[in-house]
């Protein structure tokens, strides 16, 4: 049986009840993990309030502001984990961003600032968070991130985010190689298209979802909770021999040629 009792799990990237990170947090909690949540702070405190209300049923023992573009906030986050928990067992990375104008039009017209921002938030943040988590995973651990098919194949209106996801998947492999001797596993889940706040920036997302429903072997797309189940599995001892992998949770769409 999947059992995460006694495990401390930090979940990043929850924005609302449609977030894949929210589905993952629920499944980790259901499996017995002690949950910590980070949120993206803003001047009005709007995001803090929204996320706090959403995650209240999970009774998170940590609720921390963390903007991954701010080195001081990252360090503060892991200092708090060290102080309050002493160790970290599970890190869930669900962070991605690209300017909307860099997701449409000709890819060759991607702006330099837009490229840098997409790669910093969506790719480099995994490297940075993994590096900060490493000293706290004293009993080994599991790091899970989210990717998408657009990182290996051309998807309309994905553009620079495809480059970010390709970099993310390669980062998973390099991190798995580095952290493996410390018994820290690093894996990615490539989820099928789900209607979330992040995916709403991708033009034609509803058409993409309908296409998957018509073509995927299961004739449907997946839910946040199904992705959450996969993340809970990868975070558990049941996946103790799995690292450096990309697990497709997409109703089988990835296998289809047409």
Automatic annotation (TrEMBL):
Enzyme class: oxidoreductase
Domain of life: Bacteria
A family per Pfam: adh_short_C2
Binding-site residues for NAD(+), renumbered to this chain: 13, 19-20, 95, 165, 194-198
Alphabetical UniProt keywords: Fatty acid biosynthesis, Fatty acid metabolism, Lipid biosynthesis, Lipid metabolism, NAD, Oxidoreductase
GO biological process, one term: fatty acid biosynthetic process
Keyword Cytoplasm attributed: no
Residues noted as binding substrate in the record, renumbered to the chain: 98
UniProt pathway annotation: Lipid metabolism; fatty acid biosynthesis
E.C. designation(s): 1.3.1.9
GO MF, any single term: enoyl-[acyl-carrier-protein] reductase (NADH) activity
Active-site residues from the entry: 148 (proton acceptor), 158 (proton acceptor)
Swiss-Prot/TrEMBL catalytic activity: a 2,3-saturated acyl-[ACP] + NAD(+) = a (2E)-enoyl-[ACP] + NADH + H(+)
Gene3D superfamilies: Enoyl acyl carrier protein reductase, NAD(P)-binding Rossmann-like Domain
InterPro entries: Enoyl-ACP_Rdtase_NADH (IPR014358), NAD(P)-bd_dom_sf (IPR036291), SDR_fam (IPR002347)
UniProt family annotation: Belongs to the short-chain dehydrogenases/reductases (SDR) family. FabI subfamily.
Record's subunit section: Homotetramer.
Name of the molecule in the record: Enoyl-[acyl-carrier-protein] reductase [NADH]
Source organism phylogeny: Bacteria, Bacillati, Cyanobacteriota, Cyanophyceae, Nostocales
